[in-house]
Amino acid sequence: MIRVEQLYKSFGPKPVLQGVNLEILDGETLTVIGGSGCGKSVLIKHLVGLLRPERGQIMVDGVDITRLTEQELTKVQGRFGYLFQGGALFDSLTVGENVAFGIRHLKPMPQFLLERRVSETLAMVGLSGVEPLKPAALSGGMRKRVGLARAIAYAPRYILYDEPTTGLDPIMADVINELILDLQRRLKTTAIVVTHDMKSAYKVSNRLAMLYEGRIIQVGSPEEIQHTTNPVVRQFITGSSVGPIKVPMAGPMSGKSQ
Amino acid sequence: MKEGVRSVVEPPLRWLGERFLTLAEALGQVTKLFRQTITWLYKVEARNVMAQMVEIGVRSFPVTSLTSLFTGMVLALQTGFSFRKVFNEPLYIGSVVGLSLVKELGPVLTAVVVAGRVGASIAAELGTMKVTEQLDALYTLGTHPVRYLAVPRFIACVTMVPLLTVYADSIGVLGGFFVAFVRHGVPSSVFWDEIRLIKLHECYHGLIKSIAFAVIIVVTACYKGFTCGEGAEGVGRATTSAVVVSMVLILVSDYFLSAALVALGIGR
Fold this sequence. Notes:
The structure holds two protein chains of two kinds.
Chain A: E1 2-11, E2 14-24, E3 29-33, H1 40-47, E4 55-60, E5 63-64, H2 70-77, E6 80-83, H3 95-106, H4 111-124, H5 140-152, E7 158-162, H6 170-187, E8 190-195, H7 198-204, E9 207-212, E10 215-220, H8 222-226, H9 231-238
Parallel strand pairs in A: 3-8, 3-9, 6-7, 7-8
Antiparallel strand pairs in A: 1-2, 1-4, 4-5, 9-10
Chain B: H1 2-39, H2 46-56, H3 61-87, H4 93-131, H5 134-140, H6 145-182, H7 188-196, H8 200-226, H9 231-263
Helix pairs in contact in B: 1-6, 1-8, 2-6, 3-4, 3-6, 4-6, 4-7, 4-8, 4-9, 6-7, 6-8, 8-9
């Protein structure tokens, strides 16, 4: 289980997280929703130790990871798989080497088992036989799927998805959503998804949490979120430009909010 | 009155203070990067080191050859003309070409060429990896970027730059011999006798400096890559900055290193 308590983070003078409290239960898929630049990615980067908070605790399986040294943190990072927004595949390595990378460094195994695991994992995301290709030869959707294969190859306990459907066409976005659901059923992992794609959020989540102005303002099931009375959440999920959420405007309207 | 003085004095002092803090922070980060690199020297994958040796060393051979060949040639040409003017014959071309190359031009020119070719490439590659979140991906896959990326480049640079320097010295001397023999009519035995007079400690002088330059190039390039700003603009700035800073540091440190080595009796 992951528990985030009173998490604060600023970049320079700009506060991003201002006391985030969140609990992620074992086996569930929790989606963090919120507008662009509200700190969703910053939040999940804290969960895996990529960013250090100014204040607050992040308890992963009972251990506060904000107090760990870099070396101790590496062991905790082995429990997480991370799908980056753009895939973040290593350009200099082949697809096969990319998928094998985490296994080599986190859970080493004999070469023949490693090769089998890589093929099986790529097959799970529907990409058999692409091991020798370089990432530059792949489409956006394929890169995401290889990124996903790399994230799950070493059987992590938690999978973090950073904007898994952003930049994909609707069909490919649905393919990724189905993959998330399928992996959830097969691997029984705990998943944390960060997105502003509401269709995807409703489809893959057991619970949703809305991040707004550095705090989690509502947590609930997809049905509860859909029928919320909170005006901020309501405005966000309906995608309306009219409401309490401040929208920065360019040009003559600059500085005003709607 | 006091307010007036304050408004004049405060802005430049604030500017100076901010620059000083930025410099102090950068020095701290570079020291940390260097310490981490040294700590992980023994934990490096041989395959990565070999790949970097090919990239840094082998692929720098053509440009190093051209640079050192023509440097040796022009050195012999100018020395011949100058000494002919003073002594009425082209004396000491072998000594001048040999000592200049071995002690000074060989290490400095090789380092400048490597800084331009390899330093830029390292900063651009690491910078691109940073902006595309590949460095973050390394962390999440249980690998520290310094260990996986900086250490192999460090080992490759520190071994290949001195080797390239020895190669550049040799090619430069050959170029110098060609001009001395063909253009100034210096007998080959005279030229090579002068080259043979170069002492081993004079060669060490150049080699020690080339190792120091290699450290400057690789640490600067890795630091600039790891701390690169956002987007294509950030990568561009990091690349330019890595080359400019390395070259300036090479030329400035060259004086102090030479002075220190001569004081220690190496290459006096």
